[in-house]
Amino acid sequence: HVQLVESGGGSVQVGGSLRLSCVASGDTISRYCMGWFRQIPDKEREGVAGIESDGSTSYADSVKGRFTISRDNAKNTVYLQMNSLKSEDTALYYCFTQAWWGQGTQVTVS
Predict the structure, then answer these.
(1) Using alpha carbons only, what angle is made at residue 91 by residues 39 and 101, rounded to the nearest 5 degrees?
(2) What CA dihedral angle connects 50, 53, 55 and 61, to 10 degrees?
(3) Residue in 6, 2, 21, 14 with CA at minimum distance from that of residue 84
(4) Taking Cα atoms as reference points, which of 110, 100, 45, 48 lies closest to residue 79?
(5) Burial grade of 17 (CB within 10 A; 0-12, 13-18, 19 or more)
(6) What confidence tens digit (pLDDT) does each residue in 25-63 have?
């Protein structure tokens, strides 16, 4: 059983930046693919970014060039650096690995 705890969300102006963190416990994440998803009310959860165990990354087209996913295996933590934020980035952001989800952290851009 893996527990994921996100943090770093908040309110920011358009064009601003935030860094989300996802700390894992219960297992080491170094061998797992990790991902960030987001969801707004009445819409399906969508993938934002993913990072494989070898460090390779992938991004949704809507965030390419603005968001960066990274991992620190020594800290069992995954990050999402979000720059040039837009109002449409407003959502509840979730960390995910294997079958486990975090509780989410709210990002509001206005």
Answers:
(1) 50
(2) -20
(3) 14
(4) 48
(5) exposed
(6) 999 999 999 999 999 999 999 999 999 999 999 999 999
Task: Give the position of tokens 């990354």.
Answer: 57
Higher pLDDT, 1 or 10: 10
**56-98 pLDDT tens trace:** 999 999 999 999 999 999 999 999 999 999 999 999 999 999 9
d(CA 94, CA 46): 10
> Which sign, positive or negative, has the C-alpha torsion 64, 101, 41, 107?
negative
- Residue whose entry in the numeric block shows the structure tokens 């959860």: 45
Q: Which residues contact 109 (CB under 8 A, 6 or more apart)?
A: 11, 12, 13, 14, 16, 85, 86, 87, 88, 89, 90
